[in-house]
């Protein structure tokens, strides 16, 4: 069942994101995390994609294949296009099809000034993959606007382009203030967009992580959250506890307000994912009954 079909079956879709092991670490260094995450029975697991490495034998494809063929969970392979030629995309999609991976999160990736490109924007990659008629395509959206362009109106125009090109659902950039997300959904509704959107939630368990993230994506930090960060900055266990509780509260509020999905950025940390799932499993079950 691909992710589009999962959205038809569930009122609330719950999924995880993992990233491939960094540098020269072998794929097997993620096995333990995958074992534990798969025990939590998410609806799907997405695998991020980084530039570099062999295009065809990239770790994203290998891990997505493991998720599908060993853990029997639907995988979502991320794919960026900013420095790719059509031929590169053909090779990767052929390999994904061989491995029975049918969901792709089609992204532009961060602009690195590489001139060797066939694609300028994610919508162009989406159209290109859609023509193959073999994949369910998902895209990114930005409740606070994209870092290069904070206009929500332009973000909504871009979402429409992505839908017209073949996107079946969206996963949002992480955010820490649910009210910003609700305002975003309001604008989306007013624009007649009916495509399902999953809220991206990142449990923050150390202060350096949050500083890096906000620098990268520009997510606003609500006062309530910065108080927690400042208070427990030097008490890692207390900060972890509070970060998990904050994410749980965000998720329960979103679920109770009719969110169609939650995508948890696990940072390959099954302990944190497990603690969160324990706290929300009855809520998810009730909504999906
Ligand atoms: P686009 O939709 O192409 O948008 C990029 C910018 O261009 C935006 O400012 C948009 O407004 C503008 N734009 C788009 N179309 C046009 C147009 N026709 N004319 C003018 N302006 C236009 N990065 C990775 O490298 N690997 C990953 O695995 C990864 N996973 C991610 C998962 C999620 C859920 C999210 C939210 C982001 C992820 N990213 C990942 C980061 C992503 O690659 C960056 O945010 C990137 O800068 C934008 O990607 P996009 O697909 O949204 O781009």
TrEMBL record:
EC annotation?
1.5.1.54
SUPFAM superfamilies per the UniProt record, alphabetical: FAD-linked oxidoreductase
Q: Which Pfam families match?
A: MTHFR
> What's a single GO MF annotation on this record?
methylenetetrahydrofolate reductase [NAD(P)H] activity
Q: Does the keyword S-adenosyl-L-methionine apply?
A: no
Q: Which InterPro entries match?
A: FAD-linked_oxidoreductase-like, Mehydrof_redctse-like, MTHF_reductase_bac
Pathway note: Amino-acid biosynthesis; L-methionine biosynthesis via de novo pathway; One-carbon metabolism; tetrahydrofolate interconversion
Q: Which cofactor does it need?
A: FAD
The protein's UniProt keywords, in alphabetical order, are:
Amino-acid biosynthesis, FAD, Flavoprotein, Methionine biosynthesis, NAD, Oxidoreductase
Task: List the catalysed reactions.
Answer: (6S)-5-methyl-5,6,7,8-tetrahydrofolate + NAD(+) = (6R)-5,10-methylene-5,6,7,8-tetrahydrofolate + NADH + H(+)
User: Its family?
Assistant: Belongs to the methylenetetrahydrofolate reductase family.
Protein name, UniProt field: Methylenetetrahydrofolate reductase
Q: Which organism is it from?
A: Clostridium sardiniense
Gene, per the UniProt record: metF
């Amino acid at each position: 069942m691909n992710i589009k079909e999962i959205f038809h079956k569930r009122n609330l879709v719950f999924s995880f994101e993992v990233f491939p092991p960094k540098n020269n670490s072998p794929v097997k260094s993620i096995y333990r995390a995958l074992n534990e995450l798969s025990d939590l029975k998410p609806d799907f697991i997405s695998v991020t994609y980084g530039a570099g490495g062999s295009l065809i034998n990239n770790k994203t494809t290998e891990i997505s294949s493991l998720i599908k063929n060993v853990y029997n969970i639907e995988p979502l392979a991320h794919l960026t296009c900013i420095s790719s030629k059509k031929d590169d995309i053909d090779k990767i999609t052929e390999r994904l099809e061989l491995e029975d991976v049918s969901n792709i999160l089609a992204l532009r990736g961060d602009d690195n000034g590489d001139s060797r490109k066939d694609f300028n924007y994610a919508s162009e990659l989406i159209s290109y993959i859609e023509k193959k008629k073999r994949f369910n395509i998902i895209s990114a959206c930005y409740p606070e606007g994209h870092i290069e362009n904070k206009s929500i109106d332009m973000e909504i125009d871009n979402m429409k382009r992505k839908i017209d090109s073949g996107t079946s659902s969206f996963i949002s950039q992480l955010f820490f203030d649910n009210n910003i997300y609700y305002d975003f959904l309001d604008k989306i509704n007013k624009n007649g967009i009916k495509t399902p959107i999953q809220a991206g939630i990142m449990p923050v368990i150390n202060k350096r992580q949050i500083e890096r993230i906000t620098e990268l994506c520009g997510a606003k930090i609500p006062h309530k959250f910065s108080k927690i960060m400042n208070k427990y900055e030097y008490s890692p266990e207390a900060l972890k506890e509070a970060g998990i509780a904050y994410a749980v509260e965000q998720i329960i509020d979103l679920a109770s307000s009719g969110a169609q999905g939650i995508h948890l950025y696990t940072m390959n940390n099954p302990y944190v994912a497990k603690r969160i799932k324990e706290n929300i499993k009855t809520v998810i079950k009730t909504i999906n009954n």
